[in-house]
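Long-time lurker. I teach an intro course on protein structure, and each term I like to show students one example going from raw sequence to a predicted 3D structure in token notation. This year I'd like something fresh instead of my usual example. Would anyone be willing to generate the tokens for the chain below so I can use it in lecture? Attribution to the forum is fine with me.
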Amino acid sequence: MERLESMRAEAGRNDTPRAGSGRSDMPRRDAGRNAVPRAGAERVGPPAVAFHHATKRFKSSIAVNDVSVAVEEGSFVTVIGSSGCGKTTLLKMVNALVMPDEGSVFVQGRATSELDPVELRRSVGYAIQGSVLFPHLTVEQNIAYVPSLLNKHDRRRTDAAVKKWMDLVDLPSTMRARYPAELSGGQAQRVGIARALAASPDILLMDEPFSAVDAITRSSLQDELKRIHERTGITVLFVTHDIDEAFYLGDRVLVMEAGRAVQYASPHDILSAPAVPFVDKLVAKRRAAYLS
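-- Reply from a regular --
Happy to contribute to a lecture. Here you go:
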């Protein structure tokens, strides 16, 4: 499958919103889990994902309300807010599982309304809560599912992709023949991440991927994901209810309230200069720990 590189050349044909400020530096691995990334230099180039006055209604309620946000290439953006504030709906707009009623969503410079949804979804990895693996397929077959569609006449490329991503998410080769029912929660989640990455997408969407595992496993998975992002440079949008997780993983954090994007900034800026009372209340108990 041709990925979305060819679409980038046509990015100028759309009025795509650009990022207002650059991604912040990632915290050093030895800086501790309370380290907060600080603002860094501005990046040049079109955003990987951009929401332009995006609005989505479900019956009488507004799930996403006039959101305009640009996600820079290679950034790790965490999305946080109360239940029902529109986080998941916003995420699903990126791979066209949900289409906006008003406004537009752009992926690498092209409106999702102009793209073939099947091709788009093959170029955007998607990992959700509980991993949702195919129960009748082995670990190897789950990870190979999309690569085998793309490399129908080249089994070696598929095998190489499976090995690469199993290694990167720290899954031993002895697990290749296991079925999902034989895996622990953490192992299943690692398989889900490997499957989402196996087609080498430019963008990875993650919706509460670690919420179903215990605290120790969750911490380990966070570190693994951070390492994968640092090694691959993939653009990540990560929905979470956990503010500590949002600050640890994200170089930028999008805070949503009642369908609106109320602040989009580095963790440090959100902690030191909350834009609205909702954000101030959200971070108040953690401000001293993170900024000390």
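Some talking points for your students: The beta strands are 49-58, 61-71, 76-81, 102-107, 110-111, 124-128, 203-207, 235-240, 252-257, 260-265. The two ends are 49 Å apart (CA to CA).
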